[in-house]
Structure of Magnesium transport protein CorA:
Amino acid sequence: MIRVMGMTHDHKVETGIPLERIQDGDYVWTWVDFSEPTPEETDLLGSFFQFHPLAIEDCLHVLQRPKLDYYEDYQFLVLHALDPGTLATVEVNLFLADKYLVSFHHQDLQEMDEAWDKMLKRSHERKVWTHGPYAATYIVIDSLVDQYFPCVYIIEDELDELENTGSRESVELLMNQVFDLRSRLLKLRRTIVPMRDLMYRILNSQHVQGEKEPRAYYADIYDHLLKLSEMIESDREMTADLRDSYISLNSNRMNGIMKTLTVITTIFMPLTLIAGIYGMNFKNMPELGWRYGYFTVLGVMIGLSGWMILWFSRRGWFK
């Protein structure tokens, strides 16, 4: 689908414009959005807009790292959106010039719809009148970044719940949950950190901001990305601490089990020795013919076991 928005010379926003009319000079600026384009619609990037083949190739071969390329009459931006369910990355490409913005994405994105609606609602603002493509670019990037926050907040909530209820779960289950969280945090980091670096470059680029575009708008997005990066690093450190705590807890449990088994084995070792001696059935063993020999040996074994248990208890082995 291709949708077109344009600002007329009398400061009116029109939508549903045929693509052929955007070059007639009737509009101060236009925004053309390619959403889930067909192969025929994709060919318009080269045949109608005459974009550079390398930029078109970047649109077709996903996923590119977020970046900013300068061409003769426009700038080409690669941005990343996030699927909230799977944290999969969705590429968004922007062709930005003084008189137009062309956005291209292979999937229908809620963020792009929100940015489109915001531009329509803010069409009366002077910034939108005079710097429409740059304003639209800011709104698109801001909408993409705003969708990062819920993904990070969900993980933080799961971390808090895991920290509060972890003592009631098995160590194996807890470790699986921790590694799952670390994997999801890594996916977020691979998206947010390159976007942060891209925003730093945009913030210091006069080409993208336009001659009069305030730096504060792009600085605000950059601050959001810095905050997200710090949150992710903090969450990764927390998962590392949880992992180390669970490993230590598991080691302590194993040490306790081994200690218990060692005590039991040590107690039964002399009993096994006595039973083994009197189980050899030699003929010349005086105790075998003694009337009270069996009860005496049992008493010795019980007494020896009790003495060893008492001795281990005094040494703190059962604590």
